[in-house]
């Protein structure tokens, strides 16, 4: 589930699939979203374990974020392009692609629409499972459009949603659904972001 493809990765249209520095931006995002998912998942855990999970999630998320930021700055400095826009902000980047923006827009509509529907029918406890599933599908779409490496993360997040739903159907209640979906989603994002950092550090010989 690494967010960093190799230097030989193919180009889709005029969009660079996920350049190294862009991958590090992705790792920063993974760290922060992993932190958020950890807090949501920990809400379903009782006792001191909940606090421990929250602290661990904050620590892991911040480590991934700051290491990614440091490596990205180093990459910009080494390439002599500190004053220029990074790959994620240029005309040929994933984030500036109309297809990317469309996928994200549809994701937001699905997230909000599903949450409203679940609330209306009295099953708000499944919102976290729905969110994990939708975010996973969003990554599958990005994998199809830009880089196949997103398939792993997308599949893991969909699995988090399905596992949470199964927990609810089995009588696990709100706490069980939150713990299962939230913590699996968080772990998936941390693994993806962390592996990107490890690969980037190895490539930079730090």
What does this structure look like?
By secondary structure, the protein is mostly helical. Helices cover 72% and strands 2% of the residues. It is built from 6 helices and 2 strands; from the N terminus they run E-E-H-H-H-H-H-H. Strands 1-2 form a two-stranded antiparallel ribbon. A hairpin with a 2-residue loop joins strand 1 (11-12) and strand 2 (15-16). Helix 1 packs antiparallel against helix 2, helix 4 (127-145) packs antiparallel against helix 5 (150-169) and helix 5 (150-169) packs antiparallel against helix 6 (173-204). The longest helix is centred in the N-terminal third of the chain and has 32 residues, at 48-79. The protein is globular, with a radius of gyration of 18 Å.
List the helices and strands and how they pair.
Blueprint (H helix, E strand, L loop, with lengths): L10 E2 L2 E2 L3 H23 L5 H32 L18 H23 L6 H19 L4 H20 L3 H32 L2
Considering the chains and any ligands shown, give keywords for the structure.
206 residues; mainly alpha; 2% strand
Summarize this, please?
The protein has 206 residues and is an all-alpha fold.
Question: What topology, given as strand order, has the largest sheet?
Answer: 1-2
User: Looking at the structure, what is the overall shape?
Assistant: globular
Please mark out the parts with pLDDT under 50 across 5 or more consecutive residues, or reply none.
4-19, 81-91
Helix-strand category: mainly alpha
Count of helical stretches: 6
Helical content band: over 70%
